[in-house]
Amino acid sequence: MADRLLQIARVAGAFGVRGEIRISTFTEDPLALAAYKTLLRQDGSHGLTITSARVAKGGVVARAKEVADRDQAEALRGLKLFIPRDALPPPEDEDEFYLADLIGLSVETPEGEVLGRVKSVHDFGAGDLLEIDPPQGATWWLPFTREAVPEVRIAEGKLIGVRPVESE
């Protein structure tokens, strides 16, 4: 897990004429972005070094060491920004976890049948969905609700999933 990168933000474009950047954040506290300072690109290479940030609608407005003017800020539009998973503080309680920690877990029925592995976690606006990669066939989606996922056992490397009944 130590080498896994987690997307925490995306550059939305320039703000003003002095090289500030609008950044959409995917963190609970938008200013957490500034605390990480050095943000990476998806391939792990250096992305941006945040020197200051303030909360704005939908995220933050920030200054970055690498950006001097509006044109440079605008050229970064769409850039996804990542941090290493191990840069996050550990969960406070034993039964807490990050959604990113679900990726790679085995998905089993309450009876022990293996349904696959968690390939990704997405929120398309109606709540979190787990993309399940089964041993055979196409991936499928499992809502991340108490009903569909009654147990998460991070230490055991698995979660218990109840596959939705397909309507006819």
TrEMBL record:
Transmembrane segments: none annotated. It comes from the Bacteria. InterPro entries: PRC_barrel-like_sf, PRC_RimM, RimM, RimM_N, RimM_N_sf, Transl_B-barrel_sf. Residues 101-162 form the Ribosome maturation factor RimM PRC barrel domain. Residues 7-86 form the RimM N-terminal domain. The keyword Nucleotide-binding does not apply. It is found in: Cytoplasm. Keywords: Chaperone, Cytoplasm, Ribosome biogenesis, rRNA processing. Pfam families: PRC_RimM (PF24986), RimM (PF01782). NCBIfam families: 16S_RimM. PANTHER family: RIBOSOME MATURATION FACTOR RIMM. The PRC barrel domain binds ribosomal protein uS19. Belongs to the RimM family. An accessory protein needed during the final step in the assembly of 30S ribosomal subunit, possibly for assembly of the head region. Essential for efficient processing of 16S rRNA. May be needed both before and after RbfA during the maturation of 16S rRNA. It has affinity for free ribosomal 30S subunits but not for 70S ribosomes. Binds ribosomal protein uS19. This is Ribosome maturation factor RimM.
